[in-house]
Design a protein that fits this description.
Blueprint lengths: L1 H20 L5 E5 L4 H10 L14 E5 L14 E2 L14 H18 L7 H18 L14 H9 L20 H17 L4 H16 L6 E3 L2 E3 L1 H9 L6 E5 L9 E2 L13 E3 L2 H13 L4 E5 L12 E2 L13 H10 L6 E11 L2 E7 L13 E5 H7 E7 L4 H7 L2
Parallel strand pairs: 6-8, 10-13
Antiparallel strand pairs: 1-2, 3-11, 4-5, 6-14, 7-8, 9-11, 9-14, 11-12, 12-13
Helix pairs in contact: 4-7, 6-7, 9-11
């Protein structure tokens, strides 16, 4: 009898252990339904969708089933920081600029109580020019595309300054939304011809690239008037916005490099191979974000959004346990995804609030991507802390948010 009871007990314990490890979350395939991107952005760019579009078949996508789950997916659930209203980046890969510009607008307000609407496309224009120059200097080895990193903002602004949206929108022909697809193709075709002919005349190349940009985006202003005062882009940054680009630092978390040192973010969009990313253990990295936002500092973050738990209709970003249970999210599981390419730096966003919900931290995200305009809270998403811990690759923030960490690293 004792042997039978012992056997039953062992079976019960084994079943309990297996049950405890069985994923609760489920995934399923759903039909992709056109949303803001097709119905609004492309409709504006193409002056109406092409004939037969309504009969087009879209592939199914695999998503986490988030039905019957409760999340803090209302802006009112969050302690929010001042930020400008969400904007769509249109049909462009310029999320890095939209997110970092929004971050800088919040910084101007935090520091000087001044509300601004800054031009994303002024920065994008000069980023293309800088990239073309590097293409010549590297004899065609520079990765030339629309994507970049959020810390391109300090790099560009220090050299060229910045202007308000009213001075340079980058939109022509009464368009409401940007599209850089044709412009990018034209620039790449030209640069490939330069490489093939080995015509590395830097002045000629830059003039040609500016000509392409001017025809698609307009020529950026050298002077403009705000409140009766004439500014150049640089004087506007220094005298009106009054924010110092050297006060902003980038952080990452990877086992590739030693912690608490500066290294390169190895990512194609870091095309200039910037090695000024301070590398932190993942828990320090995640807690740094929590402390910053809870102390009223917004943060620009970049990482991976191509996940089953990143849902455009519920607007939340979570890690389902069929991917990995929360207790196993650590530097090793994070690094595994960095190394196998399932985590990439494909989107930048702006953290503008936080919430403590059921003893877990959630972040209010301002997002310029088209999918962020499909749900009820247009231009916003709601990220669980585990999603940050596992899938976000880097932060851009004010130095005061990380003073203790920087003091240990910068001697």
């Amino acid at each position: 009898m004792k042997k039978i009871l012992s056997t039953y007990l062992c079976v019960f314990v084994l079943v309990s252990l297996v049950s405890a490890q069985t994923p609760v979350d489920k995934g399923n395939f759903i039909e992709y339904t056109p949303g803001f991107y097709y119905n609004t952005i492309m409709n504006d760019i193409m002056n109406g969708l092409p004939e037969g579009f309504e009969n087009q078949k879209f592939p199914k996508i695999f998503v986490a089933n988030l039905d019957n789950k409760e999340f803090p997916n209302q802006i009112a659930d969050y302690k929010t920081l001042w930020h400008s209203l969400p904007k769509s980046q249109g049909n462009t890969g310029t999320c890095w600029c939209y997110a970092a510009t929004s971050f800088m607008e919040s910084e101007v307000y935090r520091l000087h109580n001044v509300k601004t609407d800054l031009s994303e496309m002024f920065t994008v224009y000069w980023e293309y020019v800088e990239r073309a120059e590097d293409f010549v200097n590297t004899r065609g080895e520079t990765y030339f595309a629309q994507g970049s990193e959020s810390n391109a903002i300090p790099k560009i602004w220090k050299k060229y300054g910045i202007v308000p949206e009213s001075a340079y929108s980058g939109l022509l022909n009464n368009r409401k939304y940007h599209s850089h697809e044709e412009m990018e193709e034209e620039m790449i075709e030209y640069l490939n011809s330069v490489k093939e002919s080995e015509n590395w005349n830097i002045e000629e190349v830059l003039n040609s690239i500016k000509g392409i940009l001017n025809s698609h985006m307009g020529t950026p202003p050298e002077m403009f008037v705000i409140d009766g005062v004439t500014y150049s882009p640089k004087s506007y940054l220094e005298s009106y916005l009054k924010i110092r680009m050297n006060d902003y630092f980038s952080f990452m978390s990877t086992m590739m490099w030693p912690y608490y040192e500066k290294h390169e973010l190895v990512e194609p969009d870091n095309w200039w191979h910037d090695d000024n990313y301070y590398n932190l253990p993942v828990e320090v990295f995640t807690n740094l974000l929590k402390e910053a936002v809870s102390n009223s500092y917004s943060v620009c973050i970049c990482g991976d959004v191509s996940e089953p738990g990143h849902d455009r209709f519920s607007e939340v970003a979570v890690i389902p346990d069929f991917d990995i249970p929360a207790e196993y999210i650590n530097e090793h599981s994070r690094e595994k995804r960095l190394q196998d390419g399932s985590t990439t730096d494909d989107h930048c966003i702006h953290v503008v609030g936080y919430s403590e919900y059921n003893d877990e931290t959630w972040f209010l995200i301002k997002d310029s991507g088209s999918g962020a305009f499909d749900g009820p809270n247009k231009g916003y998403r709601f990220y669980h802390e585990d999603y940050i811990r596992l899938k976000m690759m880097n932060f851009l923030m004010h130095k005061d948010t990380a003073k203790d960490i920087l003091d240990k690293i910068i001697k």
